[in-house]
Specification:
The chain has 333 residues and is an all-alpha fold. It has three domains: 48 residues, Homeodomain-like (Arc Repressor Mutant, subunit A); 89 residues, Homeodomain-like (Arc Repressor Mutant, subunit A), CATH 1.10.10; 146 residues, no CATH class. It has 16 helices and two strands. The protein has a two-stranded antiparallel sheet with strand order 1-2. A hairpin with a 4-residue loop joins β1 and β2. The chain binds a DNA duplex (21 and 21 nucleotides) through α3 and α6.
Length: 333
DNA sequence: AACTTACACAACCGCCGGAAC
DNA sequence: AGTTCCGGCGGTTGTGTAAGT
């Protein structure tokens, strides 16, 4: 069965490499090649395990490594390849000369992943994020609620509870952000591709556009085997774009039974509601019956506050929440 | 200025598959 | 056939530094 990890041996140094160690390693490999990595440390006079030496060499010291910022073209390639290959960093790296899998992996996790999230794209599936769509699915309710509120204000002087108003405000801001993103990034996201072309269409990265608008064909990276290429391409093309399109088709009437409950709003509620949004604490506010009454906790709708809680770490959500607390109420103009 | 927090990235860890013995 | 070696891979952690309070 398995062997014991080479680094189990006691006394071997770990952690950051010193310049002296780097020089020893480089000098040894330049003279003798790396040969057996396991034997290398002794031969080179390094108090490291072979694996550590190999990683240091392949990820940092190798002379053909390209250092510095990733170019937009490299970013584009990474995103496109990731949409095809997933976290196959070594495969992705083999298409980016001078870049290591480790570097690409780090860059993905620290930059590109966030970038996609901010564009409203799930970095795993490379599709529009469904958590956004869950909130979008509440659109008919919010519109109906807003209309109802206007009526009640006119005729009976009754207000919707503050939590419901806050939901609508968040939705309003979210739509603004989404539309801003789409306008700023022409042909840049699957979402844009779907809405620009045909929402039910079968466009894919493989077929036509890349994430940044340049036509690319990455089928060559999928292996020499033609069957494999075909299989992957078919898979990409056949995958239905269900979640987004079905939500966009949603009939307002389907939800007529799920209008938010209306409760009498006390004068304090608007303040409370704002505070709760800021503190991301709505879900746990069990002491406030109106907040639970007015939540969107229907069978098929994730509560909006859950959605916010889940993503509140993103600057994207922070932006939305901030706007929610500062912008004027849209339905009372 | 001191402290805390967030971020970027180098390095490590554990696992796997293939080759050698 | 079973064991060990070796290199590779992807996920995770640790550390240094910049930014914020």
């Amino acid at each position: 069965m398995g062997r014991s990890p080479c680094c189990d041996e006691n006394g071997l140094k770990k952690g950051p490499w010193t310049q002296e160690e780097d020089e020893k390693l480089i000098e040894h490999i330049q003279k003798h090649g790396h040969g057996s990595w396991r034997a290398l440390p002794k031969q080179a006079g390094l108090n490291r395990c072979g694996k550590s030496c190999r990683l240091r060499w392949t990820n940092y010291l190798r002379p053909d490594i390209k250092r510095g910022n990733f170019t937009p073209e490299e970013e584009e390639t990474i995103i496109n390849l990731h949409s095809l290959l997933g976290n196959k960093w070594s495969s992705i790296a083999s298409n980016l000369p001078g870049r290591t899998d480790n570097e690409i992996k780090n860059y993905w996790n620290t930059h590109l992943r966030k970038k996609l999230l901010q564009m409203g794209i799930d970095p795993v599936t490379h599709r529009p994020r469904t958590d956004h769509l869950n909130v979008l699915a509440a659109l008919p309710q919010l519109i109906a609620a807003a209309n109802f509120n206007s009526l009640m204000n006119l005729n009976q002087n009754v207000q919707l509870d503050a939590a419901t108003l806050a939901k609508a405000q968040i939705l309003h801001n979210m739509i603004q952000v989404l539309s801003t993103n789409n306008n700023n990034i022409p042909c840049s996201s699957p979402l844009t591709m779907q809405t620009n072309n045909n929402i039910f269409g079968q466009s894919s990265y493989l077929e036509n556009q890349s994430l940044f608008g340049q036509p690319q064909n990455f089928s060559h990276v999928l292996g020499a085997n033609q069957d494999e290429k075909l299989m992957v391409e078919n898979q990409m093309i056949d995958q239905p774009l269900d979640s987004f399109s079905s939500l966009m088709q949603m009939d307002v009437q389907d939800d007529h039974n799920s209008l938010p409950l209306l409760v009498a709003a006390s004068p304090e509620e608007p303040k409370q509601s704002q505070m709760m949004i800021k503190n991301k604490d709505v879900r746990h506010d069990t002491s406030n019956p109106s907040s639970s009454n007015s939540s969107f906790t229907q069978d098929h709708h994730q509560p909006w506050c859950d959605t916010i809680d889940d993503e509140a770490g993103d600057s994207y959500w922070k932006e939305i929440i901030e706007q929610t607390c500062t912008e004027p109420w849209p339905f009372h103009e």
